[in-house]
Amino acid sequence: MRMNPTMGRFLDAIRAGWTRLWGAVRRHPWRTALVPPGLVLLYVLALLPFTPGIGNLRKAKVEAPAVLVSADNVVLASYKRVNREWVPLDKVAPAVVQALIHTEDHRFWDHHGIDWYRTAASAWHTLKGRRQGGSTLTQQLARNLYPEEIGRSPTVHRKVKEAITALKIEAVYSKKEILETYLNTVPFLYNAFGIEMAARTYFDKPASELDVLESATLIGMLKGTSYYNPVLNPERARERRNVVLDQMAKHGSLPAERAEQLAKRPLKIDFERQQEPLGPAPHVAQHVRKWLIAWADRNGYDIHSDGLVVRSTLDTRLQRAANESVTRQLSQLQPLADRRRKAGQDPALLQAGFLALDPRNGHVLAWVGSSDFARDQFDHVSQARRQPGSTFKPFVYGAAFLDGFGPNDTLIDQPVVLRGANGETWSPRDSTPPTNAPWTLRAGLVFSRNSITAQLMERVGPQKVAKLAQAMGVRESRLDAVPSLALGTSPVTLREMVSAYGTLANNGRWVEPLLVLRIEDSEGKVLDAFVPPRSAEAMPKAKALMLVNAMRGVVDEGTGAAIRSRYGIQADVAGKTGTTQDNADGWFILMHPHMVAGAWVGFNDPSITMPDAWGPGARSALPIVGDYFQQSVRNRWVDTKAEWDIPRPRPKPKQPEGDPLERLVNDVIDRLFKILQ
């Protein structure tokens, strides 16, 4: 069989090349011997840029998480990478260090990051089919500090990167610093990182008080935290603990007789998960964290290690009062909600949101995002969008005042049928029959009369109402410019509504809500400042004060009268209640020249509604705001002498006729709530 000429030439070229190569090897044996090490060196040099630099290594040891600080200089949150409390080596029980070194790396004090003897032995056993680990403590530390850069796959590539990083660590840290860093970074399950959190989690004591058995148990876990989990696998953990005791005896840190005695003892665990402290404003901490990560990415900072100090506008006194007000009200309403659930169904958790700010500068003073952050992290201040009900009505009256209407203009309280742009009809109703009598616009707002508001919406137009609401602060949610918008059918956030009411309290000038004042570095140098915030005139001062003056009547004699009668607040305040269909949402927002506060109450599932007895905003949300303002007045956190630049109405206007039975029921319920609180 004849060979293809092309294939023949190819084989001849290979033979010729091999002959030349072999000749070169015979002529230069020493140069040839240097080729493999040279290739290895080139490989290592090529990997160097892909391993952590010296600067990163130094930063890892002094890692300082960003902290969120209140206006009164209280730490609200610490943005740690993991749940860890760093402790110096001299605050760790000596038995822990002895167990660690004798079990994981008994030549730790002698090598420089890589134990070549152990590495060779590991390779030999692996070739024989008995895989063994050969990593030193320094190499393990490299993996713990940089899991993404180094990884954990069993490959030569990964091992080389690990070895390079270990050598760098030995060049940067002393041996004691390496031990301290290792013990403070190693994971122990259950969100416990470091020896201090491990000691508290498994033995309910600090690392400085661990005895020999407890130390051996924790160090024994390091071979495989899940496999040797003392909570779920106590027998395995006990056997592994005894192996550690044997190693301690073998290397002289524990007498053999003592090790044998200790090995007979049972495994005693005092287990309790260590939860990170939530702080007084967990939803604020979560909200700021997301924002801060984006800021840090844009500006080249690390929120986990650069020691940033975030100065917020929150006041811990006001925040504490807000927390107490929300808790107090929901603790009364939740049992009532539970009784309404059908047998066999889990009771739904009643939720609430609360926000207070200073309308003059937009500073957020207090923020409560849910009934219990541990059970529900969803933020009902900035994330939840719910129908605002009658709390939206001031935008209708504000637009009317801008159009030339006055608070003393009248409309007939009568049935209303409105048609939308597509021909659909809308017939709003009130809780009591129409009186067919003239009502002033002020009375329509004070007593939240739907028929009056709907007629006013028809005359002003939905577009103007939506435009005003957006100018005043409802700037993120979509508003449908339809007639039913008058009664708050477009979902919005509590943050937007409180901001909009803040515009009224600030004489018609919108100021963007401000939560973070500035960011400083660890030395106090200002890196970025966020004052003053954006602002714009939404209403002329005279028109804004006209609307505020009308809304004073809500708390003087209308649906928010409990602010005066039940909570005894006599300061110059104005507000509005809000309730959506079937009591799915309860709202109340109260304004003062120096403080605006609002609350929402309901269930996460809007199909679950609240009963008439306590579901309307005047009974579900108002008590939260009333209690908060009562504390603020009592503690002089708000100036009770401050008043708007328009005379307060005296005497109070006479209340229009309504349903006497409804007024009686409302009065009885308000008195019952007052007794309960």
Tell me what the structure shows.
The protein has about 675 residues and is an alpha+beta fold. The chain folds into two domains: about 85-265, Biosynthetic peptidoglycan transglycosylase-like (Penicillin binding protein transpeptidase fold), CATH 1.10.3810; about 320-675, DD-peptidase/beta-lactamase superfamily (Beta-lactamase, 3-Layer(aba) Sandwich). About 45% of the residues lie in helices and about 10% in strands. The chain contains 25 helices and 16 strands. The chain has a five-stranded mixed sheet, with helices on one face. A five-stranded antiparallel sheet has the order 5-4-16-15-14, sandwiched between helices. A two-stranded antiparallel ribbon has the order 6-9. Strand 1 (about 65-70) and strand 2 form a beta hairpin. The longest helix is centred in the middle third of the chain and has 25 residues, at about 315-340. It is elongated. It starts with a helix and ends with a helix.
List its traits.
677 residues; alpha+beta; Penicillin binding protein transpeptidase fold; five-stranded mixed β-sheet; Beta-lactamase; five-stranded antiparallel β-sheet; disordered C terminus
